[in-house]
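Here is a typical sample entry:
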Amino acid sequence: MRRRLVLTYPNLLWLKFDPVTTWNLSPATLCQLGAVARDVVDVSVVDGQFLNLSIDEYAEKVTENDPDFVGVSLLSSEYGQALHIAAEAIKKRKPDTIIIAGGVHVTREYEQVIADKTIDYAVRGDGEYILRDLLAHLCGEGPMPETGVVYRDGGKVVTLPQAIVENLEDLPMPDYGLFDMADFARRAYAYRLGPTNPPELPGVRITITRGCPLECSFCQVKLISGARIRARSADQVVEELALLRDRYGVKSVIFDDDNLISSKRYFKDLLSRMIDARLDIKFTVGAFALFSLDDEMLDLLAEAGCVGMNIAIESGSQRVLDEIVRKPIKLQAVPEWIRKIKAKGIFVASNFMLGFPGETWDEIRQTVHFAETCGAEYVKFFMATPLPDTALWEMAEKQGVLKISKKLEEKCERWGSRSGHGTAEIISDEWTPEDIRILRAYEWDRINFGDPVKRRRTIEIWKSDEETINRIRKDTRDSITFGSGGRH
C-alpha cells in the first residue's frame, strides 16, 4: 500500500490580517510539488489560507485521511510562527506524522525551523526533486538526498547544501487536479482591491522563472534562487496558460516572477508565442524591470494582452539609486517610458522605498516628488527594511544605523532566527522610523487620491467605488501609530 502525503499552506490569518501580505498564495507551488512526489506517494493538498481554516479545522482536515507525511510550505518569514503553529497542531492530533517544512522562509531560516522538534525535516532551496527523493528514502526506496535537506541526527543537526533545479523545463506541469482550481480562480482574489490583483476574474498568479542577476542591495532573491535566470520553455508556459483557460475558466494572470524580463530574448519569444496561440488572456507583470524595456517589447506586450505593469523604481534620487540601492535605473528616462506604456493602454503602478541608510531627508522628499510627477497612475511607498545577509543590512550595520527591535532579539534567542522582516529598522540623525511611517501613509493618500481626476483613475484601476476607497484611506491614516502603519 502506497504511503500518503498531504501538502499544505497554513493560514496566515492565525497571526494577523494585512491587506498586502495575507493574500492567497498560488496553489501552483503545492501542485507542482505534488506532480513530482506522486511518483513515490499518494498526494493530496490542503490550503489552510484559501479555505480560511481555524487551527483545529486545519489539523483535522490535514489528518483526516491518516497521512504518513505532511509538507508545510511557507513563503514569508514575517509569518514564520504560522509554520510552528501548523506543525504543533498536526503532531498533537497525529504524533507519528513526519512533518517536512519548505518554502522561502525555510530556505532562509532553516536553523530556526529545525530547532522546533515538531518539524522533522526542512528543505532548503528548490524542493521538487528533494521532496520526492526524501520521501523515497523515508519509504525505504532510496538513499538520503545529497542536497537540500536539514535534519536532526541524534544530538546534532545535519545541514546539506542548498538545492537548485538547474533546468526548469524538466519539471512537469503543476497537477492542478489536486486542487479545486476553478473555485480558487473565481474566489481567491475577489476580496482584494488594488492593482496587484489579477485584472479580471477568474484569475490566477503564476511564476515561470527563478533567479535574478541584479545586485539590488535590499533583496534576498539571489540567496534564495540564485543569480542565474532559469526559465520554463515558452511552449510550456503557453500550454499551461491554455489549460488554465480551457479547464478552469481563467481569464487573466499576474506574472509574479522576480525578474521575468531580464532575458529580453526569452521574454519576447514568450510574448510572440502567446500572440500566436490566441490565448485571449489578460495579464499584468508584477515586477517589471523598466530598464530592460524597448519599443519592440512594448509592442509585443500590448498585442499579447498586457493591461498593467508594476515598476519598482525605488528612489527619486539618482545618488541613492546608484550608491545605496544599486539598481540600474536612470531616472531621466523613466517619465518618457511611462508615457509610452500608457499610450498602449497599459496602466502603470510603481513602488518606491523610503529611509535607506545614509539617505537624507531632502532625498526622501525627492523620491516623493518623483513619485508624484513621473506619470505612474498609482504609487506605493515602503519603508526600506534591512534583511539579514543583504548588502543593505551590512551597509546599515557598518554605518551604525541598524536598530534591532526587542521582538527580533527575543525571536533570535528562542529559535536562533536572523529574520529581520519588519523588526529591524534603519535610523538617522535627520529622521526617525516614525517620520517615515507617517510620511509614506499620508503621501500615498495625497498622491493617489488628492486630485479628483487621479482619484477616479485609481478607483478604476482598483475596480472599486469611492465609498470603499475612502474607507481604506481612512483606515490607513488611522492605523499610523509608532510601530505600525497601513500599507496598500
